[in-house]
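Q: My labmate handed me this sequence with no annotations at all. I'd like to see what the chain might look like in three dimensions before we decide whether it's worth expressing. Could you predict it?
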Amino acid sequence: MQNETASDLLARHGVDTERGFLPTEDPVRRLPEAYQAWEDLAVELPKLLSAGRVHEWIERLPELDIADLDRNELNRAMLLLSYLGHAYVFGGEEPRHRLPACVAKPWYETATKLGRPPVLSYASHALYNWRRLDPDGPIALGNIVRLENFRGGLDEDWFVLVHVAIEASAGPGICAAALAQDAAAAGDVAAVATHLDTVGQTLENMIAILRRMPEKCDPYVYYHRVRQFIFGWMDNPGLPDGVVYEGVTAYGDQGQKFRGETGAQSSIIPALDAVLGMDYSQDTLGAHLIQLRDYMPPSHRALIEEFGKRTSVRTFVLEHADDAALVAAYDRCIEGATEFRRQHMEYAGTYIRGQQQNSSANPVETGTGGTPFMRYLAQHVTDAHQYLVGPSTN
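A: Here is what I predict for the chain of 394 residues:
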């Protein structure tokens, strides 16, 4: 038996059985009055970027102390500082190579407390960047809007909100995955199959939401108005020496290189891969994806690691491969994980690779996380089917 039940495991890592990796409480919408300067400037970002005056306004900010903020407020501060920092770096004709201390110091201090690098990551961009229109309604498209924007507009909002809705839909599947491990530890074949069917259904729900991306996010608009702001400063041709964080003693005056925001920093697929026994750690992209875990909230990456150490669902299925219902449920999960990757790859081709490059800092051959993404994504789609236990349906 496991040393800890699924519900206790998830609760210990702050993962909700309904919301999944989204915060257990809706994100903080405003910091205390002492941080009014950050809040006010964040509201003005779309206008200042359009006017070409974002740098001078950010440079006027006071240097604020984040010592008194609680954890929920720290996540709000991380969101604001990430948007201010990326707007400063990417808000002109060419990227800026230095961040002023008024942003760099509190950003570094906030990130250190949260256990993530001081760069815009998926956690800030998506997990903590939404609110519900009807606070009693679901966390779903049609009832969620974003808290912060760069340029603003429907396409930018929809791109992120689709990810938020996917995160919310994944909760039951993450819970079922942990329950499948418990059932495998108990030797309960029927229960493992039942829980794996829930995981499979969850993946199909996620795919259905992902396929709604083109409804309100146009590929041309995404590339030219949205994507440039979510890059990082590692493997970015426009920032070969990284970015200097002025006033941050720990960094000296040396350029720092951090990866940019990418959906690959979501914990859903790595968590399900760990439970299903889909191991990509030995290939080039797999090694890169493991590095991206450094940009996840620490409790989320710890859960992924623990999933990998618990009872192996794949081994259990292989040991009971004569049970048709169990194999079908497991393979449903593998097919879902494969199709989610395939859909992601299709969008990468349309929204990025198919666009006309407009800047060295917005390359069409390199992902925002810093990889030659199309080759890696294609390989993962191909490799995923090796994990099928029964005959492939394709």
